[in-house]
Design a protein that fits this description.
This protein has helices at residues 4-32, 38-64, 69-90, 95-123, 126-159. The protein has 164 residues and is an all-alpha fold. The structure holds fe (ii) ion.
C-alpha cells in the first residue's frame, strides 16, 4: 500500500493504541495511590476498564486495516516510555499532581481522537470515525469528573497532611 495519506492515518491509529496502553499503566498506578479517595478511585477503576476495552478496539481496527501486531507492540513501548518521562518530571507522588496529569492525559486523548476523527472523515473510514466519536465521549466523562473534583481532592489532601 503506497497511499501516503492512508499510511499517515495508520500511524496515528498505532499512536492511539500506544496512548491507550500507557493510559492503562498510568491508571493502574494511580488507582493504587487513591485508597483515601473512594469516589476518585471508583471513577478511575471504571475508566481503567474503558481504557482496556478502547485499547482492544483500536487493536482490532489496526488488524482489520492490515497492520501486523509486532508493529503495534513497538509503537506502544515507544510512546509509553515518552509518557513515563513526562509524568516523572511533572508528578511528584501526590494525589493532586496525579489528578492534574490524569486530566491533561484525558484531554490529550480527546484531542487525538478529534484529529483522528477528521482524518477518518477525509479518507472515508466510517468505522474509525464512529469509534473516535464514542471514545471522545468516554474521555470527556473522566475529564469532567477530574475537572469538577480536583479542588475538593486537593482540599482533602491538605487536610490530611501532617502540619509539621
Ligand atoms: Fe482512552
Amino acid at each position: 500500500m503506497t497511499d501516503k495519506r492512508r499510511n499517515d492515518v495508520l500511524a496515528w491509529i498505532r499512536d492511539a493504541h500506544a496512548m491507550e496502553a500507557a493510559a492503562v499503566d498510568n491508571l493502574e498506578r494511580l488507582i493504587g495511590t487513591a485508597d483515601d479517595y473512594p469516589a476518585l478511585q471508583a471513577q478511575l477503576k471504571a475508566h481503567l476498564i474503558v481504557s482496556m476495552r478502547q485499547r482492544e478496539e483500536v487493536e482490532k481496527v489496526l488488524v482489520g486495516l492490515g497492520t501486523d501486531t509486532s508493529q503495534i507492540k513497538d509503537a506502544a513501548m515507544r510512546l509509553g516510555g515518552q509518557v513515563e518521562q513526562l509524568l516523572s518530571r511533572f508528578t511528584p507522588d501526590s494525589i493532586p499532581k496525579n489528578c492534574l496529569a490524569a486530566y491533561a492525559y484525558a484531554n490529550l486523548e480527546i484531542a487525538s481522537y478529534r484529529s483522528l476523527l477528521g482524518a477518518a472523515e477525509e479518507l472515508g473510514m466510517a468505522t474509525v470515525k464512529t469509534m473516535c466519536e464514542r471514545f471522545i465521549g468516554e474521555e470527556q466523562e473522566i475529564a469532567d469528573f477530574l475537572f469538577d473534583n480536583i479542588p475538593s481532592i486537593t482540599g482533602q489532601y491538605l487536610r490530611q497532611r501532617p502540619r509539621a
